[in-house]
Structures
1.
Amino acid sequence: MTLGEGTVCGIAGIIYRHSRDYSRLGSDLLTLIQPLESRGPDSSGVALYHSHQPSSVFTIVLRGQGKSRWQDVLQWFEAIAPVAQTAAITNGQRIRLDLSGLEGLDLTTVRWGFRQQFPDLHWVSAGYSLEVYKEVGAVANLDNAYGLHDFSGSHGIGHTRMATESAVDTDHCHPFTAGTDLAIVHNGQISNYYRLRFQLERSGVIFETDNDSELLAHYINYHLQQGEALESVLYRLLDVVDGTYTFLVATVDYVGLVRDRTAAKPAVIYETENMVAIASEYRALLNLPDFNPKATVREPDASEINIWSTATGLKLAPPLSKALL
Amino acid sequence: MSNSVTITKTTIDCAQFSTREINQQLKALAAEGVQEITILNPQGRHNLGVGLEAPVTVRFQGPVGYYCGGLGDGIRFTIDGTCGWSVGENLMSGQIVVQGNASAMAAASAHGGVVCILGDAGPRAGISLKGATLIVTGSVGHSSAFMMQQGRMIVCGDAGPNLGDSIYDGEIFVAGAIASLGADAKLVPMTEQDWQVLTTELAPWGITAKVHPFKKIVCAQQLYHFQAKDFSKWKDAY
């Protein structure tokens, strides 16, 4: 009996409808991805959107090997904006910039500058709400390394990895991010990764790794930056990106779930009046503390796009299947 | 006075055992002559009841994961809930009833027996069917009956795009709308014998075949002897 395409990487996501549940985010998301370790034993990661930082605080998560020059990094950032807070995290640093005195941040210039100054360091995530944490090994490693079970936030996405296209190390873990507050987790393989990557790089996009999944984050972010709506970008993506993919994309305001044109990779959606949860396999949902067996559980169709508002947990528009258009 | 007690019915609570232990117990119980087994708390587990070659009746009280009843021979399973991918994969004989929706690849490569989904099935339902009968009272998804070789798929609802793509042989019946046909699949007229077969197959599930507008799809056999230059006989999978 072959396991075939049913295995390989697990993805999950949670959106709470009510702020009273925000304190559960870290704990619930880790609980949700833990059973998916059997799909992806190499590493795990989460992208969490916190609810408690003031809106002028910009958080950057960085990773580095061994003894990195964190003091130099902090000094470099101080020249851009005041560093409100900094914390050492496992193999990395989390820096919170106070942008209250500035008119935003030219992130593209900052990224390019950072890449030139510190080419050995890895830019994990950046945003007003977003924090990304990843680690090799079991999900327990992730919690142990970063103490995420106390993380409070409105929504988050997570991933367990079985490396198929690129190396197993922390930098190649999902979630991947692009721009400000955008993260993705992906199950599948992207066949035309290099061609699409080169197109984006010619437009000034910086790729952190050679992991094909990272493409999704940059492709979506690039088109959102052009002013396109998320739904429109995701529909175009179905035609442009070749391969197998079920993925979740998260921003501050939305979480989107996309399945490729043949529904090659699994996804299950669970919706109650308190939350929306997505997971690669039904059995992962059973771990949720207040799992309701009578709740709406459904599998999206091939080419189906679901987008939820993170403010309300409500779906943006009825799920539309491209096949019917 | 009888010196021995024959147990005919028993229960296994999945919460207490690994999947391997459950499956080993099922085989052992079947060998001892137990006729009916109830499985509690399946909790969406994969590979429940695989490789069971015995005429035993098993009821799963709850949703199951992937491959439930796979490689079964003579089994009679009922799943009170949804099932994951590939329910009844490579079933040799027997019957599996799913009282809920099936995920992708229901009855994948099944050789004999009946798999009945009392709900919708997902993409690739009946993929590589090899002689079994797959009945879906709801709809089936994308690329169903892909590379079907033998057997019968009966769909009371709709069929998604690319139905019967690369079919070799066998018969597909769809009562609802067909989004599109796959490569080498073609519609043919229903015969009186077809209606009789449908009536017989659907009656146990409380469905009167004749009130539904079933259509029949079989292999057009244009790709049996394939010439790469015959582009007109290709169907673009995209």
Note: Residues 4-53+129-324 of chain A form a domain with the Glutamine Phosphoribosylpyrophosphate, subunit 1, domain 1 fold (CATH 3.60.20.10).
2.
Amino acid sequence: MAVTEEARAQAKRPPAPTRLIDPDRYTSREFARLEFERLWSRTWQLACLDSDVPNPGDYYEYVVGDWSVVIVRNDDGELKAFHNLCAHRGRRIKSGCGNAGQLQCPYHLWTWDLDGKLAHVPERETFCEFADEDVALQPVLVDQWQHWVFINLDPQARSLMDYLGELPEILAPYRFDRQYKWSSRATRVKANWKAMVDAFNEAYHARGIHPESITFINYTDYEVRLLGDHSLMIIPFGMPDTESVPTVPDYQEMMDAMEWSFAAFGEDTALVDFLRRCHLEPGQELRELMVPLMRGGMAQSNIDVSALDDSQLVDDWHFYFFPNVIINNFSFGYWLFRFLPDADDPNYTRCDMWYFHRVPDTVETLPPPEPHLVIPEGETCGAVMDQDLGNVPAQQAGLRSPAAPAFRLSSLETRISHMHDVIDRYLAGD
Amino acid sequence: MTSSTGTWPATDAVALVRVLPADAALEVDAGESLMAAAGRQGWFWPTVCGGNGECGTCWAVVDSGAEHCSAMEDAERATLRKGMKANEPRARLACQVRVSGPVVVTRRSVKAPAKEGERA
């Protein structure tokens, strides 16, 4: 029996990593400096959504470390990105987001058009002569996949589609083009950006940190796929955790837990309302009830999910976009988490939480995204997020101890060692 | 003794705890946790951490006899605050609570032990 179980798990996951992870990678300023110099300077990174800059003149500032990039929609409707940096004396030109016919530095009012060409220098004759091109805004690579706008600080970078690899094809049936951001929040958390990524990239922690969901999510028997620099885990919903739930869960308590967990993310709990009217036959799994209910509910909402198989319909297809974007991806929408390193302190991360929903196929134009909400550090981001946001800083604190050992990982956590392998490739300059 | 436990039979055990809706009658020794007593008497009580007060999975709602329950420690309170019973003031962790008199709690997931070879 044990051999069979092991063989099954191995078939669905790469073997357990042999690599030990050095805690300095999470705490050292020198390591963070190397990451900025060799990783963040060269990788594609999700900057914003196209809905953040829908009209000509719309701009959006994306900050990573000491870099600031301003993404603009020009008069032809094209996306442009520039180092957000005045060619005169270096001031950041724009902050936040807004709309402007030109990009103008508030300091001495140097002005560029939306293509980054110099438009005006006040009192230009008081300078020694210079060419307009010498003071043009410095372009940054920008490209778009679905509604996601990416930038890359390396002018020689490979293409965005090359970087994304297999992800667009695997994600195609989920119709990201038909999803809009219904909630957008950010907070600051006292943990390294990789510690946050790690906490989302394995489901092994869920028994300890999110035990409410063990009756309806299987945190043991999940599949892991490494996809180039990225990775995927498929977490089965609608069945109890193999390891921690030895009995058939009480149906009512399972429904209460399911409702609580989804409500903690602000999700609609209509599915639970329907499930409460059902009951499980002996030997039947909850997911067998969920499949027809979800297909029927989506059809009633005019959302075509015929391209999704039953696993895609019910389970959490959980994607990691290297280096810092995670999505918990469901048939009805996805939860996106972006973790941005602090410019000055490897012990801090900015955590963005963007939540998306499929819109009915009858809706032609997607609703505009909801306004962005900044949540002060330590205040609630929803009960389940709070469980993670309370947990990871305690790990960070431990990793900072001089006694912290190199840590080992299970096959449930392979995505973590894989991330470190990819980081090492960047740091080596490959 | 409250009315809901008034008919409870006399016993030598330190305290009697009734668990609803399974109607488990548990004898709880002095210093023994409710969850440990359930396990000793063959009842399934949900837990993930095994009784260390970490996971909060063993929560139970005290219907009566709260005055016979041990005072709540900070660690138990912190665990409860993180979970789905954060707003239930009568919730306790069965792995932490000790009892000194009759108590009635509700926890639907508490079950009689499975018979040999069957999933409960």
Note: Residues 383-399 of chain A form the longest helix (17 residues).
